[in-house]
Design a protein that fits this description.
The protein is an alpha+beta fold and about 170 residues long. The chain has a domain of about 120 residues: Cyclic Phosphodiesterase, Chain: A (Alpha-Beta Complex). The chain is about 25% helix and about 40% strand. It starts with 6 loop residues before the first strand and ends with a strand.
Length: about 170
């Protein structure tokens, strides 16, 4: 892995398909989440710094993982929070948790065998690092949210000039 600033800062996620992705992005934008930078998603691997010469290996690893992972159903329902540990409100994953966990374990192996700061908990962040009143509002605004979607791809994004930009998508199941 790289020292910060000496390579690539990457993140890996499954993005929430339409029409639900746009619905979530509209609410996220109210709480300073820029959907043009990173659309509504479930993080599979949080940001990690890798050396320049490791990017091709990571891409090959993700292609292998995606090719051996079948598309899966993801049900989002209601809201949750990580408070008081972390000032975050999210839409909860109600079904598909184990599939996200399996995908995270496969991604976080080989070239990406890294330790994470927190135990893995699949979710869609709606608001973070904002005032408590805004967190409360976001929690209430989406407490009745429901979406049943098919996840069929994995995305690799890189932090470039302060923005998360798509590097490549990997279709699940080959």
């Amino acid at each position: 892995m790289a020292e910060p600033g000496s390579g690539h800062t990457i993140g890996i996620a499954v993005e929430i398909p339409e029409p639900y992705g746009s619905q979530l992005d509209a609410v996220r934008a109210e709480y300073a989440q820029d959907p043009d930078e990173m659309p509504a998603h479930v993080t599979i691997l949080p940001p990690v710094d890798i050396d320049d010469d490791l990017l091709d290996t990571v891409i090959a690893h993700l292609a292998t993982v995606a090719g051996s992972t079948e598309p899966f159903r993801l049900v989002l329902r209601g809201t949750g929070t990580f408070r008081p540990v972390s000032p975050v409100v999210f839409v909860a994953v109600a079904e598909g948790i184990s599939r996200c966990e399996q995908l995270e374990r496969h991604v976080r192996s080989g070239a990406l065998a890294v330790e994470t700061r927190f135990p893995y908990h699949p979710h869609v962040t709606i608001a973070h690092d904002v005032a408590d009143a805004d967190l409360d509002e976001a929690f209430e605004k989406l407490e009745g949210f429901y979406a049943d979607v098919q996840i069929d791809r994995l995305s690799l994004r890189e932090l470039r000039e302060g923005r998360w930009q798509m590097v490549r998508e990997f279709v699940l199941g080959g």
